[in-house]
Amino acid sequence: MKKVSVLFFLALLLLIPACKKGENQVGQETESQEGEWASEEVEDPTPATPSKPKPTMKGVMISGWYYDPVYEEDGVTIKTMSADFEAIVGTEVEVYGFYDANDENKGAEMLKEVPIDGAKKDFIHVRYDGEDYYVRDYSIAVDAVAAVVMNSSAYIYSKPDLANIGKNTVPESTIVAAFSEKIPEDEEKLFKKIRYYVPDGKTFTVNGYLMNSSLSFEESDVAAVMVSDKYKKLRAEGKTDPIVLEELMDNLEFLTF
Q1: Rounded distance between C-alpha atoms, residue 212 and residue 11, angstroms
Q2: Which of 73, 120, 204, 212 pairs with 238 at a CA distance of 20 to 30 A?
Q3: 70, containing H or E segment
Q4: How far apart are CA 239 and CA 160, in angstroms?
């Protein structure tokens, strides 16, 4: 695919409000012996409102939905989650928490065992397009970036070693999450640790390693696959609004030619 500048297509309008602490000063006036007025500043006993935490990591959506919390009457306790809208595979989001290489979810801020759909499930706190949401833990790869498989024979490896090639391949034009962490045993830097989701009802999340040479990290390539996937999804669902489909095709042609 021709590499074109499409930063405006992928950019998330992330407006992170900065909370400002206010300081109030109370003037206390006293009269001096000479008849002049002086003012004395005293500290405001009211504690300052703490700043709202900000996302500290990046993540890639590989499936799932964005959820909003549903609270109990006290407005504090989360009762369940309400699905807001479906995520587009390959979308990069901001993740709350503090990086921990030893944690399965890299230290992401989580809500565990939240009752939903008759079961208890785990969620990760994210920010997308300037708004806060929660996503299922399986649907996001934390501390990762989006990449596209550009090779029709991209074999997945169980370990970052040429001798550990598997029998399965990742289909060409599949969007995967490529983890940012370094692979100590991959001295030649041939591999990337990846994760992607297979919605076939039996495979689900796939983890492994792909050779760097089979991946593209170009934003134009990722965007082209995202647009193509969206077009195919709308057609499959019977949502064939000609204006929307035409716009998607125009975008796809712009990204690939």
Answers
A1: 24
A2: 204
A3: strand 65-71
A4: 42
Q: What gap in Å lies between CA 178 and CA 217, rounded to an integer?
A: 9
φ/ψ bin of 45: left (φ > 0), alpha (ψ from -120 to 50), beta (otherwise): alpha
Contacts 24+ apart (CB under 8 A), 81-89: 81/114, 81/116, 81/123, 81/134, 84/133, 87/61, 87/63, 87/135, 87/139, 88/61, 88/226, 88/229, 88/230, 89/61, 89/62, 89/63, 89/175, 89/197, 89/226, 89/229
The whole-angstrom separation of Cα 40 and Cα 193 is 62
Q: CB-based contacts of 35: which residues, under 8 Å, 6+ apart?
A: none
Whether the per-residue pLDDT at 19 is higher than 90: the answer is: no
The 3-class secondary structure across 110-168, one letter per residue, is: EEEEEEECCEEEEEEEEEECCEEEEEEHHHEEECEEEEEECCCCEEEECCCCHHHEEEE
Max distance between CA atoms of the chain, in angstroms, equals: 95
Q: Which tokens go with 5?
A: 């500048």
pLDDT value at position 209?
A: 96
Tokens of 186: 């991959």
Q: Which of 150, 10, 135, 167 is nearest to 67 (CA)?
A: 135
The pLDDT value given to residue 227: 83
Place of tokens 């057609």: 235
